[in-house]
Amino acid sequence: MPLRYLILAALLATPATAQNAEEVAVARAVLASLQDLSFRKRREYCGFIGYNSDAKLEATPATGGTQATCSAAFPDDLAVVASYHTHGAFDEGYFNEIPSDIDMESDAEFLLNGYVSTPGGRLWYIDGRALVAHQICGLGCLPVAPGFAKGLNGEIAERYTFDELVQKLAD
After folding, report:
1. Confidence (pLDDT) at 15
2. pLDDT at residue 16 in the model
3. Which residues pair with 59 in a beta bridge?
4. Low-confidence ranges of the chain (pLDDT < 70)
5. How big is the CA angle at 7 (ends 17 and 160), to the nearest 5 degrees?
6. Which residues have CB under 8 Å from 122's CB, separation 6+?
7. Which residues on neighbouring strands pair with residue 47, listed in sequence order?
8. Is 63 helix (H, G, I), strand (E, B) or coil?
9. What pTM was estimated for this model as a whole?
10. 163 three-class SS
11. What is residue 84's predicted lDDT score, i.e. its pLDDT?
12. What digits encode the pLDDT tens for the residues 85-116?
């Protein structure tokens, strides 16, 4: 099937306003597998999830970033529906238990879903069209970083709009 048809099918099959169970499973598996590496190397890892030419959902190999950023090349052999990235190791100087406003803006730019794992083992879903993030699962549902300190950044809500993220990060 030509890739242009896969792109259309992917967008129709997985609107950013609702999670596709298979998409969530792929995101959870790839992020769970990257947590320990991300903690050890103290940096983010990122990539994309999309449909291949056989209409199978898969994740691209992860790209290593820095302590607070990550940028992967957009694949031309997948109909991309989502991004994924880790938030690296636990560090008291960073607010990394929620997606950032930049995370949300990056997904919104391409009308993608996004998945973010945190040092506390949370898994977040970003709806890049509605500009809303919510927890798929909370503390400890994915591997937790050594030395993680629960509550350092105060109460973490189950859901944030873009404006609420900006406000939370400014506090």
Report:
1. 44
2. 43
3. 49
4. 1-19
5. 25
6. 97, 135, 137, 138, 139, 141, 142, 156
7. 84
8. strand
9. 0.89
10. helix
11. 98
12. 999 999 988 888 999 999 999 999 999 999 99
Q: CB atoms < 10 A from the CB of 33, how many?
A: 14
Helical spans, DSSP H, in 2-55: 3-13, 21-41
Contacts 24+ apart (CB under 8 A), 105-114: 105/162, 107/82, 107/83, 110/74, 110/80, 110/83, 111/11, 111/16, 112/16, 112/80, 112/81, 112/82, 112/83, 113/14, 113/16, 113/19, 113/23, 113/81, 113/82, 113/83, 114/82, 114/83, 114/84, 114/85
8 A C-beta contact, residue 131 and residue 108: yes
pLDDT of residue 18: 54
CA dist list (Å): 17 to 49, 111, 126, 137: 16, 10, 9, 18
Calpha distance 137→118 (Å, rounded): 11
- 9, two tokens: 């099918």
